[in-house]
# Entry
Amino acid sequence: MTHVLQNVVFPLDRDPDLLPLYADPETWSTIEGEAVRVSSRAHLGNILGRTQARIVAGRRVSLGTYFNAFPASYWQHWTSVRDVRLTVRTSGPATVLVYRSNGAGVQQRVATQEVTGDATSSFDLSLTQFSDGGWIWFDVVADEKHAVLEGAQWTTEQEPTRTGKASIGITTYNKPDYCVSTLTALADAPEVLDLVDRIFLIDQGTQLVAEEDGYEAVAERLGDTLDIIRQPNLGGSGGFARAMHETLQRPESDFVQLLDDDVRIEPESLRRSIMFARYATNPVLVGGHMFDLLDRPKLHGWAEVVDQVPFMWRNLYQEEMPHDFGAANLRQTPLLHMRMDADYNGWWMCLIPLDTIREVGLSLPAFIKWDDAEFCLRAGEAGFPTVSMPGVALWHVSWINKDDSIDWQAYFHARNRIVAALLHSGVSRGGRLIRHSRRVDLKHLMMMQYYPVALRAQALRDVLSGPDHMRGNLATAMPAARALAAEFPETVVHRDPSTVLHSRHGRQVYKQLKKNEFDSPTGLKLRWFTLSTLISHWLHRPDPANVAQPEVEFGKGDAHWWRLPHFDSALVSAADGSGKNIYTRDRARFRRMLRETISLHRQLQRRWPELQQQYRGALPGLVSDSSWQQTFEEKA
# Structure
């Protein structure tokens, strides 16, 4: 029996920014070692359908792209599939050329076939030389007349290791329009629904998906496949835990595919993730990559890891992200040909085998932040690795115009990172985590950002209280964190032009001071800067004139931690550009918070082994299906 591993597809949306992810109709040249575009033929008019594209006479189109090349190294490494067949259907005179790459991005042509009329070209390819990386793809060159790529597939005759379907779990809080769009895309993709058992939409909001325009029509199309579940807001971890719980009751499901709500999906990616998981030699989590929904050729999340010593997440090649496929496509980016191994994958899109959930439990009751990383670390320790799979991706609202490290989410960033480290860090007392956490507080204090310091202090107090607090405040921690903002004037975003204050000395004052004074300090200069700034903020009262009116103004990109501390007050643009925040030095609050953060971090340092034992001992009860079921019943 023939099994389709991957379909060649073209974008659902008529968006020219998406074309570089699907087709590469550009000619490239090398000038002084740099790959540059010398012409472009990317026309939406040549995309004829979901699987069809026109190749203009005399032109060449490459399918060596993110969504249409075949990630051979991942299939060789994680599955037992060693032979695949590429089938290309064309009409008109053309030449089909097949290429492969290695882990360094070096390209080789492996097959060529000339065709005329309506033709089907087949290429049998081996997956035996891709240990370090590499893709396989094909190009189509039109002859004296236009040619049409009618469709192409990557298939195998080998039977999968497992054959169960996947249930999809979507967690939402007041994003009904996005959810209806996702459901519609699924309804329009019967080849995906063939592999789907149930779609569990966990609605935790007040703006209900069931009341959104277009919902009734798509619900009728999906029929019994769609199951809407209402529950109070238990965060992403509570919503995804509910999807896991419901999927465990489905005997036809082998997997649960988690999806965030504020996304646009590529349905073929869902199909690919399920097929890859079916063929994996041993059960693996299949993670999807994340593109920016508002800048769609930009890739933000590839393979993600947790550095043990600071115990902090990052991309494996952090300095290379985001990657703009509009500027450099797959064939021009050697790094993306390497097989990259991940520690975890964000739950914007992640497929999890039910075997994993049965063995390690459900999500940690973390509300948001670190629940995905912690689960994947836990799964990895139990022998279920995470594969961050190329060609499997969606578009998600990115964090570029956000700063969730200083809003109510600061509580969850701090608490859940520490809890995850207590559970999984193999370094004595969390390595540099405590020192880094204390440094974050010092930076906020020097920048007159007192609200996140208050939230982080509450996070440390809760961690020190023991693991029972996590389930106890699952539904209340977020409202409490948001309510606390009322005590901090800095959290107010001034949007009305008639009420926005102007600074006393203008926006460019720091540029008028001596050169290098505001460069980021390092080494001994950093230590001296921190000590002298803390002493200054401890001893000196702010000038009343600077309290009455902000002393200086900064754009968000200029408001660095080594600049703001020099002033008594500052007017700073909000991260999303919607208005301005006013930061004002408060000596009494600074003194109290400085003493508190030093004391709390000392306690955490001293009690780390004890807390580590407590949290690890409590973990099975925190993540068990029965305890989550009890939570769902209590909150119903």
Observations:
- Residues 28 and 526 are 46 Å apart (CA to CA).
- The radius of gyration is 27 Å.
- The chain has three domains: 3-156, 165-303+341-396, 410-589.
- Confidence is low (pLDDT under 50) at residues 28-41, 512-516.
